[in-house]
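Reviewer comment 2.1 asked that we show a complete input and output for one of the modelled complexes. We chose the 2-acetamido-2-deoxy-beta-D-glucopyranose case, as it is the one discussed in the main text.
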Amino acid sequence: MHLESFLVLLMGVCAVVGEPTVADASPRSSVWPDPFLARLGLIAADAAPGPQQEPTSSSGDVKDQGLEQSQAETIAMLEWLVDTVAEATTAPAGTFAAAPDAVPVLQDLGHAARSVAITPASEGEALMVHLNTVSRLINQLPGGEASFPAVRRAVVAALVLRRLRHGAFRPPQERTVQRLLQQLWTRHRAAAREKGIVEFAHVSKSGGTTFCQLAERNGCATESFAANKNCEVAVFRDQPRYVNGTVHVALRKGRKTQCDRPNKPMSLRREYSCAQRKRMLQEKRYTIYANEYTAVGGRLSPQLAHSCGNMLTVLQMRHPHSRMLSHIHHVWGTYLNHCGADREAVYFAGGHEATDWVRLLPAPLNNYLVRSLLGEKVFNLPAGQITEKHLGLARIFLAFQYDVLLVLEDSDLSNTALSYGLGWGEHELHVNAAAPDSGSDDGLPSNLDLLYDLNRLDVELYRSGVLMAKLDAIVYDAAQEVVPEPKPAAAAAPAAANAMAAANSTATAAGAAVAVANATASTATTTAAAITTSYAKSTTAAPGAVAVAEATHDEEFVAARRAMRGHDFRRRQQRQAHEQLGQGASTAAAAWVGAGRRGRAARWVADALGASRAIHTPGDAGQAMEPAGNGAQCGWVGQTWRKQLL
Ligand SMILES: *[C@@H]1O[C@H](CO)[C@@H](O)[C@H](O)[C@H]1NC(C)=O
Ligand SMILES: *[C@@H]1O[C@H](CO)[C@@H](O)[C@H](O)[C@H]1NC(C)=O
Ligand SMILES: *[C@@H]1O[C@H](CO)[C@@H](O)[C@H](O)[C@H]1NC(C)=O
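Response of the prediction step:
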């Protein structure tokens, strides 16, 4: 027994001692901090002409698509990030749904970051003071599940602005800056561990299917990794919605066709709150799930829309033009599969020009990314009704609500985010993500300009998102000095040891992701209550508004759904069953325990009690002490157990 503790301790020490050696191999310090300007493709004012100064954008494709941002545009965006955090009190209600208490600290942080950005090189002392203030305020932010991706982005933005305008940091400042970046990352990972579950915001046709399969290879657990399930949880009804059903039906003109019902019709969802979602996911011991519809909470107002900040939120973006064309290809193919000859004879009898397509697919062809972040009200607006105001809101939510950003076009950027944002060792994200769009123009309208114009706001949001992803990458780069890059799991994963550790961790880690093998309704309710309480404690209007909106949704939902569904008996039965599901925690818990295909990690946990015996052999104990992020437990979210051991 003593020997076992000693081994655990010894392995822990080895892991810590082992970590810095990786960083030693990197020549980062000699060229630092210009690499972080390079991450953004920026050129410092003091840069001498030479080959080094060529902005090294990590992807040529992005440039080819005419997306190269002007330096001025980038700077404006960096300033916006700092200002937005400094003015946190004016942020829309949904922004801080998960951590309303943080607002005063955020404001101070924003102001301190501003000071960093404008302090000239001659005032070295002052700069150190501001850097230390930023660091101290970061430590004052609420801990636990709360994460502050916008703080990370604003602080890095301030450092970049300072570097651009006032020259390179001097060596002692360099060290302080590097430590600050590492502090930001350490907080990110600590929050990820507390969150315990990944929420993947799957914007359709942006590579989400591949991402879901990647999650399986990284040892995550969910309801189904099948390509047509996409890591979604059926009961949440987060499936994608493309087709305006009214338009589809109208095109039939009363005729009987092979596809009277549209595929992927737009419809409202019975919405579970984030607290409910998390509780249900914990009960199933899932470590990832995907939402392929739109953010929650935005039924009444986009101001209240939010991702589930009680989980590690991931958003994958793709350039809106290729995403949109991919949608057209997909739906064109789907209509052939479902309708056969009726595709051209009935549904596209009037042609397939831009206006025909937009009428049929108002959301996918008109700022789908903006719609995806702003909840149901905006998602279901007719084409042409997305405004600059919506863009502004979506940009704030993107900065504040999404922990990890992936960019389909930029594999280097995405790989860094997978490694250090998620702790995943397996990266083969781009196997089939770049769908064979080119070659065939089947179904495409002759004039694409109209469609491009309809997605102008989405392109702007995408650009902002790519910049934020690059700021994140600067933090991830700094983290390499702290923790070695997560590696793909060994072929024979140490399943038994991990399962034991994961199962055991829950006994002590309150609110941890992985539920105890025999989770009861009462423990689940307690967790949910704790989350609700933390929302309710707020002094600002925001969370109350969110809660009220969620409560109102239920009645509104029933009415809306009834209107939409008519009196179709089978559907009504389903609806009633579904409503009952939400009536009480215990009912929900009981109904929730159904069949579902699970990934590796879930199977390990399911076998936890049997497997735990194996831990007493030194070999297995050793495997349990693999360095952080060996990828075998869904990265950072699956590693709450390790905190207990170290
Ligand atoms: C769907 O089509 C109907 C009928 O044309 C229209 O009234 C409605 O606004 C459309 N919905 C969306 C989201 O475009
Ligand atoms: C679980 O962890 C606790 C302390 O965290 C420890 O005392 C106990 O022995 C562990 N259980 C197993 C089965 O290892
Ligand atoms: C779960 O707990 C309940 C109540 O304590 C018990 O009756 C049941 O046998 C347990 N189930 C398992 C699988 O351990």
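Strands lie at 198-201, 288-291, 312-317, 404-407. We note this here for comparison with the apo prediction described in Section 3.2.
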